[in-house]
Amino acid sequence: MDITRLTIHELTELLREGATTSIEITESVFKKIEAVEERVNAYITLTKDEAFKMAEKADKDIREGKAGALSGIPVAVKDNMCMKGVKTTCGSHILENFIPPYDATVVRKLKEAGAVITGKTNLDEFAMGSSTETSYFGVTRNPWDLERVPGGSSGGSAAAVASDECIAALGSDTGGSIRQPAAHCGVVGMKPTYGRISRYGLVAFASSLDQIGPITKDVEDCAIMMNGIAGYDANESTSVPEKVSDYRAFVSRDIEGWTVGIPKEYFIEGIDPEVLSSVNNAIKTMEALGAECREISLPHTEYCVAIYYIIAPSEASSNLARYDGVRYGFRQKGEEDLLDMYKTTRSSGFGAEVKRRIMIGTYALSSGYYDAYYKKASQVRMLLRNDFDEAFRTCDIILTPTTPTPAFTIGEKMDDPLQMYLSDIFTLSTNLAGVPGIVVPCGYTEGGLPIAVQFMASHFEEGKLIQAASAFEKNAGFARRRPEL
Ligand code: GLN
Questions:
Q1: Same domain (yes/no): 177, 63
Q2: For residue 212, how far is its CA from the centre of ligand 1 (angstroms)?
Q3: Known active-site residue 177
Q4: What is this structure's pTM?
Q5: Average pLDDT, 10 consecutive residues per value, the chain (485 residues)
Q6: Which residue is closest in CA terms to ligand 1's atom 4?
Q7: Domain region containing 345
Q8: Cα maximum dimension of the chain
Q9: From CA 183, how far away is CA 456, in angstroms rounded?
Q10: 138 and 198 part of one domain
Q11: How far is the CA of 28 from the centre of ligand 1 (A)?
């Protein structure tokens, strides 16, 4: 048996029975990494030594009856979350050698729950992108087809889970960066409600949109990871002191009598026919499970891409001002004066996409334009949020496609930013509205590429998402497929 193929809940069972040890699991995962990483490139940094120390401690805790919810389980972390003493690069030249002196809250929580951290995964530079191609550390390849992108920006985390180079992973999602790569890699990904999970120690991209979440092999594992990382954090001013449910309790409950909203704005021209037919089949599965699927409208959907590409770059331009060669990471040497040092450090430290965002954002925030762009976008964002509030008055959840197409080929969209931006057309809205979303495999193309359905729920209703996604997963018949590498 290849134990790297198992889920958190299965491995936890084996650990509990004494049928395996965390050391054994960790060894298997690092063997898998050795075998496939050269082809996949899911990681920027491996933390093998730390991992074995954590595994040893987990085994001891398990023996002494002190096991945590993730004891002994190998988990990978996207490389925009700080881990004390380990490089945190954000996929950027400018942070190539940055070693944070502290743990992000989520990393601390993983450690406290007993997880074994295997390393830091690849991402689009500063999480800006949908393909992992803008990483300074090279593209990650899709384990289902090595000529294709894994999606992005959490492409490394999604590819690592899909290729069994870890058992579960953390990603971050500003406009789709957990869900789009999870969809392209045939795994489960959740973006929780804004404020549900602490962003302390997550390197900021767009602070009003960023949220951390799990990428896992199945829905039950997603619930287990959420139990481990969710909750209020006094270190983070936007984290919300809302009660955290036991998400695992929502697994395997039925959805009989639920109302599922199908927003007509998400079924537009240009969706790949295989994606469309798989998502239509997902609707039929929900009906077969006793839910009533009904057409709804989210009338401001057409503005999502426009609003996002004002708000996200504006916030990014402000957040990224701190990388000037003085306090963090890379500094261009040999410059005459401070201004020159700033200029050359930033010019050579950032890649093309990050510079594009900084320029768009600086423009949108500049005096005289602020009202016309950022302020206007924020107002339309409220209308979009109202659309969701309205919809959730009558619907338990909303069902949509996750992406308009399956994973595209490497290089295909790199010269066409607009096409790249459109790959998040169905995922941006939840970040703008702050609501949670989950994606689950709902089919495969004839060529064998995964397709995912997305469920959205009202603020802090992650439990409902787990319930719907787990009922769907158990009945749709696409769970647990793995690529052959
Ligand atoms: N692809 C989107 C962007 O480039 C979303 C990225 C993300 O969610 N981090 O901004």
A1: yes
A2: 13
A3: yes
A4: 0.98
A5: 96 98 98 98 98 98 97 98 98 96 98 98 98 98 98 98 98 98 98 98 98 98 98 96 95 97 95 98 98 98 97 98 91 89 95 98 95 97 98 98 98 93 95 98 98 98 98 94 92
A6: 129
A7: 302-378
A8: 71
A9: 15
A10: yes
A11: 33
